[in-house]
Structure formats: C-alpha cells, structure tokens
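JOB MANIFEST
job_type = single_chain_structure
chain_count = 1
residues = 123
[input]
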Amino acid sequence: MGDVLRQTGNAMKPIDKDELYEHLSGFLKGKGVELKEGAYTNGIQKGCTLLAEAINLSQKGISRAKDEVDKKLDAMRQVIHEKTAPKAKAAAQTAKPPRSKAKPQAPKAKAKAKAKPAKRSSV
C-alpha cells in the first residue's frame, strides 16, 4: 500500500458505505450466486460496511503517518545539513580576495642568536 502512495503521490479515494457489498453482489452474481434479501445478506452487508470503514480509517492513519514521517525526515535532513555544511570561517577563507603582485617581504631576522658552546682545549 505504501508503494501506491509513492507512485501516485495521492491516497486512494474513500470507499462508500455500500460499495463493497455492491461489488461483492455483482461478483457473486457473475458466478451464479444471487444475494436475496434476508438475514444472511444483512450480515454480509454489515460486514462489508465495517470493512469499508476500517479501510477508510486505515488510509487516513497511513496518510497522517506519512505526513509525520516526511516532517521528521525533513528535520533530520536539516540537522545533517547543518552538521556537515562548511563552517562560516572556512567559507570566509575561501572567499579571500587575490593577493596583490607586490614583492614578498623577506623573513625577519631572529632577535637573539643562539650562543655556541665554548671549545675545550686539550692541555
């Protein structure tokens, strides 16, 4: 039934109260069985009415559940997007303007030179 919703994008039309009974009567008539008024046909008709109501209610429930799943899925996609999207700092670095063609500066000399250890004399 979920495949029907995915393929068409729409839920089925609700079933009328007596529609199943009419179809069942037509089917049985084609097989040579005619339903005449009586206690057993009233029971069959009530059963068909209950089945139609159950189908209609389940379709409404499926439709509601599909809507809720879609909402939760959209929220989950949003969270994933926010967690995996590039950070603002990284985006700003990639958007830096190109450097000018001025000569690069020479590296600054270190202020203090390391002192070399004194050599020992062999006496």
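[summary]
The chain has a mean pLDDT of 80.
The radius of gyration is 40 Å.
exit_status = 0
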